[in-house]
Write a structure and sequence with these properties.
alpha/beta, TIM Barrel
């Protein structure tokens, strides 16, 4: 079985975008606007149509069996509005993910976004995580380390601000993908510099703080191949070994995992050569940041299965990357109420 740990619902019907536009319009008149959750009039037929020619088609063409499916990352937009804005928006997005998984239970398993908001606590995120996991069978969450939208004005990941959320993740036994959203800082392009910089930053914050000593069962997935981490493995390893208070890289490997959203063969070859096989989860980010085909091969840049197929791996290593590691990191895939 091939499990894709990183898929987003980037093809939602236009009614979802219209709901978000209405939220933004109300906030333009009153930045403290609360409003109400309201409803989305989206039929099951619309949901099927939105994925049939997109995610489902590519799953069939590329031989992917199951995708861990979460709301569109760039649309999480935690910097927009206030805590109520994020709560209503996240609930709608997560409920659409649950409906998709109900319509196609053999193709998708649900991963939720959290209603984070700058300046607010994480209590609302804990409530939504519990709702999604305990009531709707979600198997993981996306955690934004920078809800300010590119300004990094909030507490770092090792701050006690995050403790209630980490405690809930450990209690529920669900991992988090450390995934930022769109940026309102003009210095950063969101899917390139902001995403990859955030991946690296999240890893370094864990390394320099040793926070997993306090949460030894917590699991993070660092997406997009880990940002700069595999490429600069020696830098991080050497710095950690020179600072007694920092976590060693081999210690971090009990808690930190990387996906394969790296869109060329040399990048994947480096990833599987440097990072322990047990810490790599197959991911494609389909349909995500890079939808184009390589003009030299005609193959989609994001067809990451091809890169794993061609990498210098044993059959056992390939099996762990394609399935075994995901089942270990997302144990609710194997429990009643999960969607695996």
């Amino acid at each position: 079985m091939i499990i894709d740990c990183h898929g987003h619902y980037t093809t939602a019907p236009p009614e979802l975008g219209a709901y978000r536009d209405a939220q933004k319009a109300a906030l333009a008149d009153d930045p403290l606007h609360i409003g109400e959750k309201g409803r989305l009039d989206i039929s099951d037929d619309q949901l099927r149509e939105s994925i049939e020619g997109n995610q489902l088609r590519l799953q069939r063409e590329r031989g992917i069996d199951l995708t861990l499916f979460s709301p569109r990352a760039s649309w999480m937009g935690h910097h927009i509005g206030n805590e109520h804005t994020s709560r209503f928006w996240s609930e709608h997005c997560n409920e659409l993910i649950r409906r998709i998984c109900d319509l196609c239970p053999s193709n998708f398993a649900p991963v939720c976004q959290l209603p984070q908001s700058p300046g607010a606590g994480v209590e609302s995120s804990v409530v939504e995580l519990r709702r999604c996991v305990e009531e709707m069978g979600f198997v993981g969450c996306n955690l934004n380390p920078d809800p300010s939208g590119g300004y990094w004005s909030g507490p770092p990941l090792f701050d006690s601000y995050w403790w209630p959320l980490y405690e809930a993740m450990c209690e529920l036994d669900v991992p988090a993908m450390l995934h930022v959203s769109a940026t309102c800082n003009p210095n950063f392009h969101f899917t390139s510099s902001h995403y990859l910089g955030a991946d690296t930053t999240a890893f370094v914050q864990a390394m320099t703080s040793g926070l997993f000593a306090d949460f030894p069962t917590m699991r993070w997935i660092i997406p997009h191949g880990g940002g700069a981490v595999p490429y600069h493995w020696g830098r991080f390893k050497g710095m950690a070994e020179s600072n007694e208070a920092w976590a060693r890289l081999d210690q971090l490997m009990d808690n930190v995992f990387f996906d394969t959203c790296v869109y060329h063969q040399p990048g994947i070859d480096l990833l599987v050569d440097v990072v322990p096989t047990g810490n790599i989860l197959f991911g494609s980010e389909m349909l995500g940041a890079v939808k184009a085909a390589d003009p030299t091969t005609g193959e989609g840049y994001d067809d990451t299965k091809l890169y794993i197929d061609r990498a210098d791996l044993t059959g056992e290593q390939r099996s762990r990357i394609f399935e075994g590691n995901a089942r270990r990191v997302f144990p609710r895939l194997r429990t009643p109420g999960g969607s695996g």
